[in-house]
Amino acid sequence: MPRVRLRHLTASDRDAFVALRVVSRAHLEPWEPIPPSGLDLYAGEAFDRELETTDTETQQRWLIVRDDGTPLGRIAMNAIERGPFQNARIGYWIGSPHAGRGYMTEAIAACLRLAFGPMGLHRVCANTMPANAASRRVLERNGFVKEGFSERYLQIRGVWEDHERWAITRERWAP
After folding, report:
1. Do 51 and 16 touch, CB atoms closer than 8 A?
2. What pLDDT sits at residue 157?
3. What single string gives the DSSP state of each residue in 61-126?
4. How does pLDDT run across 117-143, given as a tens digit for each residue?
5. Total-model pTM
6. Are 113 and 175 in contact (CB under 8 A)?
7. pLDDT tier at 36 (50, 70, 90 boundaries)?
8. H helix runs in 5-83, sequence order
9. Maximum distance among all alpha carbons in the chain?
10. C-alpha closest to that of 110 among 67, 170, 72, 64
């Protein structure tokens, strides 16, 4: 029985979402880029941006909720490309009170069911910093394979950080 489900964000999620981000700041900051716009990722304006892009042609964002309705984190498919590529890039975070309990592994599995089911995608990619062992584990548990390494791929907290490139295709996916 799944312990988590995914649903699109709604305006009524704002307070709980922002509160979870604030309490998780120390847990999340080492892995998150600072947006060029200077947007505070731990304030209401960041939630507003999430809400605006929760369900578009190129982005899908879902709140990860526990079976009792408690918000746990967020998972997103970005850079959705159609045509012959049928590809998306996945991004995710889990709130610090819920980390290490397997929720994100379940959330990524649910996301892949959407990706390879109703969304009709062929490939889902993820990028993670080599030091982020927890992120690498959830990808491995969901059948992603490491495809490569990108030197100084993304600026995190003002430093160009290396990232590993991971992916899974519909053929490799085992629901």
Report:
1. no
2. 84
3. EEEEEETTS-EEEEEEEEEEE-TT--EEEEEEEE-GGGTTSSHHHHHHHHHHHHHHTTT--SEEEE
4. 999 999 999 999 999 999 999 999 999
5. 0.93
6. yes
7. low
8. 14-23, 25-28, 44-52
9. 42
10. 64
Going by C-alpha positions, the residue among 164, 100, 85 that lies closest to residue 131 is 164
CA 69 to chain centre: 19
Residue type, 23: V
Name the band, by pLDDT with cuts 50, 70 and 90, for residue 58: very high
How far apart (Å, rounded) are the C-alpha atoms in residues 137 and 124? Answer: 16
Amino acid at 46: A
Half-sphere exposure of 140 (CA within 13 A, CB side): 8
Number of H helices, E strands in the chain: 5, 7
Q: Which residues on neighbouring strands pair with residue 154, listed in sequence order?
A: 161
